[in-house]
Each structure stands twice: as C-alpha cells, then as structure tokens.
Give the backbone structure.
Amino acid sequence: MTTENRDAALAAAGDQTATATAGRDVNHHRRELEALYHISQLLGSGRHQRQVLAEVLDVLDDQLGMHRGTIMLLSPDSNELTLEVAHDLPAGRGRSTRYLAGEGIAGRVLATGKPAVVPRISQEPMFLDRLHNRRGRIPQELSFICVPIAIGAEVVGTLWADRDYDAAAVLDHDVRVLTIVASMIAHDVQARREIAAERRTLEQENLRLRTELEDRFRPENIIGNSGAMREVYRAIHQVAASDITVLIRGESGTGKELVAHAIHYAGPRASGPFIKVNCAALSEGLLESELFGHEKGAFTGAIATRKGRIEEAEGGTLFLDEIGDFSPATQVKLLRVLQEREFQRVGSNQMRKANLRILCATNRDLEKCVESGQFRQDLYYRVNVFPIFLPPLRERKDDILLLADHFVEKYGRRAGKDVRRISTPAINMMAVYHWPGNVRELENCIERAVLLSTDGVIHGHHLPPTLQTSDFSDTMGTGTLEERTALYERDILVDALKRSGGNMAAAARELGTTGRILRYKVRQLAIDADRLRGTR
C-alpha cells in the first residue's frame, strides 16, 4: 500500500470513529434531556415529597445508569444531614444515619457548597460508605459524585450517585446533570417549605380563632365539633348566665348530665353545689324523701331529721335526671318548688324557701306523656321554658372519631397503655354503625378495645361483635388462625395504602416489599385500592 493510500485509509477510519463518537454523544445527550424532562414532570406532580424523590432516583438509575442515588436533607433546626430517600437500600436501614458538616464526602459538600467527585472510591479515605456498604457487597470498582442541594447560598441537602468505574469516562457530564437535578429538587423543597410554613401560619391562626370561639361557647367537658353540637354550645352560652329552668332532652347516653354540668359551671352559681337526683332510680316514697327531706318519725325508719336534695342544693343547682318518671303526687309538689321556690319536708308543716336553680333532663316524649295524662300539663310548661335538644350520635357522625380518640387517651392512660391510633377498618366500622346507646355505648366499646389491644393499635376485631358484622365492618372474620392473620394483614395494607393515597409503589416501599407482592395481597384480601386514592 502506498503512503498516500495508507494516509487516506487512516483518515477515513478517523472520520468513522469521530462519527461514531459523535453519534454516541448525541444519543447520550438525548437520554439526559429525556431524563431531565421526566424528572421535571415528577417534581411538578405535587405528590408526597418522599415518594416523588424516590421516583427521581429511579429515573437516574434506569435512564442514566447512576446507581444507589441518595438524597439527604438538612433539618431546619439542625446542622446535620439526615436521610430522606435512597435507591437500592435494604428496608429498615439508614434512618439513623447522620452526616455533620465536614464529615465524609457528603459533609464536605454540605460545608463547602461545592460538588465532589471521587473517581475511585477504594482510593478515597474520606469516603465513609455508611449507607450502602458498597465495599462489602459490590465487587467492581465505583466512581462517586455528590452535589449540593442549595436554595440560593444556603445548602439544604445533598444528592449523590454511583457510576461503574470507567477510566475513559468524563464525570464532569454527570456532575452537570446531577447539579441540574439538585437545582430542581431545591426549588421543590423550597416551595414545599413555603407551603408548609404558610399552612402552619394558617393553622395557628385557625387554632387561635377556634380556641377563642371554644373558650366563649364550648364547655371544656363536652367533646364534639359537628354543626348539631355547635348549636348545643350556643344554647348553653345563651342560658348559662341566667337562673331560668332548662329542660335537656335527648336519647339515653347522649350526655345530658354533661350539659347540665356545663350550664352550672358557666353560670353565676358555679361556686355553689351541683346536686343530681336520678328520678328513675327511686320509688315514689323514697324520691319524695330524697327531694324534700323528712322529719324524725315522719315514717317507719325515719329515726332522724334529714335534709333533702333541694336544701343541699341551696345557692347552687339541682339537676333532676329523668323527670318524666315522676309520679303525679310528686309532680304537684315539684310544681310548687318551680313556681314559688317553696317546699315542705315530709312530716312537716313548715314551709321552707329554696334558693336554687333547677335543671331537668328526660329521654321521654313529654308531649305524648301530657296527652296520655302521665305528666301534668302545667308542670310541662314550667320545665320546658328553655329546651336544649342533644342529637343522637348517629346524627353527629363527624364527632365519632373525635370522641373515640378522647376515650382512647382516657382509658389508655387509666390502663397504663400506649395506644397510639385506631386502624382504618375499625374507624369504618364505627362510622357506619347506628349507635343505639349513643356516646355511652361508644365509650364502653373503646374501653373494651383498649383493654384488648396489645400492639398500640385498636383493630376491628377489638370492637364488640355488634360492630363486626360484614355489613358494617368491611373486614374479614376473626375465628380461625388463617382469618385472624388475614385480618391483621388487611389492617396493615389498608393503613399503608391510605397513608400513600392509594399509591401501590409508595405503600410497597413503606412496607419493605415489592409492588408485585403488594398487588397480589390487595387482590387476595379484596381491598378496594381505588377507594383509598386521595385519602392521604
């Protein structure tokens, strides 16, 4: 071959190499642009931050070959980096990992605010490898790139990833790409922090205003924020300052005695006694003696003079519970007390004055009792001056969880147990149940559930059998070992899916399993994941 031919062949080969190299560069550049576009779409989705960042690391791994991507963020009140999300990290590892400023490569990036490149991690003494244990489980040599996540001049975190070592690789390209990604993450972090700060401000203002309203209207001893209960609070506020007679009406177990307490302690007689008489628990003779007192020798067994409840309530409030059960004879004497504030002890002719306020309560339909002659019409008009109607629990569904949480805390403290929450199936069961026993029944159910709970959670099978029927519970049976195991699994999966807004991938990551296994379990346990979307 002549010299001219050889030179021409070499030139042609050089052109082909340059063309191939240029083609590879174009393809690599296209992949980078596609990856950056994909990441920008993820960060603009508005979903949960940890879930979005995990998917960003997935893109770096799948499309750009940057393995074991990790994002660590600086706590607003701290000077150390904590793990936010990491790719290819075994479940349960790394949550306690910290990097102080200047500690290791990540700490140096945090301190200086400049990217760091380690061409070969085996030759870098500052490479601490606390998270992934690369030297112990990855045989090949690796390169490491770490860039700061900065908002202006403030470094708020770090982003790092690995590359399989290639002596010919130009890592400056990877630094540029990761810097762009870190910049997008920084804007997302800043936006979320601003939203969180605005939300905290609004929540604090809302809490302040709500506290002012509650201090003004809502008694401390009553739980509930539903519209029906707010009407009750307004009525209590309107009537508490006067001495007017109040009739508290509602089904058994709705909390009529609590309303009576609230009226008494919000009124001018708060420093006086609060005396309760359960009219349904006493016979006619005993009730009369209990109310008005008796003189010595007034009847067999009256061996001494005794004050009645009316005298004991002097200067305070007398609460007559279940007033609809009064006998006709006692109704006449009570009418005089209401009209004239006068009474006589049993066996005495002396008329005594009564300085007290009278509150009454009943779960009976007094209008029907008046029509049937069981209750005096004139007494009805005397006690029904200012009626307050307490709604049954089935008509204040919004308060069920609030009441349940209150009772969980109350009975958990009493039993010395740390019961942290109520599972989603248990909440569903309580929400659809009709509660014939009202708040009293709910309280008893929670007391029982707290006693049965062993893992700090109230599950559906801890509630009474009346709530566990399939029509109400949306849960499985609790008889056999297989059924009990399925119930536990279902509780765990439903809670995880609810926290992730129905996102299977995020729920799988939280539970340390794969999406395939999670989808299989969801189908096996008949969980409606679509119903849980957007519930976070």
Notes: The radius of gyration is 37 Å.
